[in-house]
Amino acid sequence: MIVALLLTALIGYLLGSLPFGYLVARAKGVNIFEVGSKNPGATNVRRVLGAGPGNLVFALDALKGAAATAAPLLWLRLGGGGGAGEPLPLMVAGLAGALLGHSFSCFTRFRGGKGVATGAGGFLVLFPLGVLAAAATWGLTVLLTRYVSLGSMLAAVALTVAAWALHQPQLLVGLCAAVTLFVILRHRTNIARLAAGTESKVGQKPANPPAA
């Protein structure tokens, strides 16, 4: 079981490390690590390059989270588990690996995004009702404040609250809590800007981006 968990986490890490934000921006002649918030996540790509590239990055980042989470389940159902055990621990390991890979990608010198889209994709497989609660919280927060970062952090909190309120397995509740803490820590610079009143709002654009 330990070997299966480590292997699943490693595969998840490699999937999560795929730097779609960097690749999409580079295809447009932009080094995403040098513009806006210098983050390769979908929000910064959208702010710098527009809705099309930003939405594409969000979808791709969510897809790799979903793939890393669903792969162990498919493997077990196809009979390849070899006694590896229940699917939930393996799915949790896959998503945890993907989140670490996305945030600390081995392909971009261990730089990466904040894990929101990748986490959303993974939890869509693990806990769809929680994702619905998180999405509603995100949408309402962004609508009222125009701060995507604040919406992302509150959405993560809503995910954990939903897991606890709906009596999900302890392992899943623990994962939600850990991911919430992880997302908030990854947003610590945004928290500082929110406190200072300098955080970018939806619709604001940075200066002309430098070429890759």
Gist?
This protein has 212 residues and is mainly alpha-helical. The protein is 70% helix and 0% strand.
Query: Roughly what fraction of the amino acids lie in strands?
Result: under 5%
Q: So what's the overall shape?
A: globular
Tell me the Rg in angstroms. 17 Å
Q: How many domains, in number, for the residues?
A: 1
Output the helix-strand order. Answer: HHHHHHHHHH
- How can the largest sheet be summarized? none
Contiguous uncertain segments of 5+ residues: none
What does this structure look like?
The protein is mainly alpha-helical and 212 residues long. The protein has one domain. It contains ten helices and no strands. The longest helix is centred in the first third of the chain and has 27 residues, at 51-77. The termini are far apart.
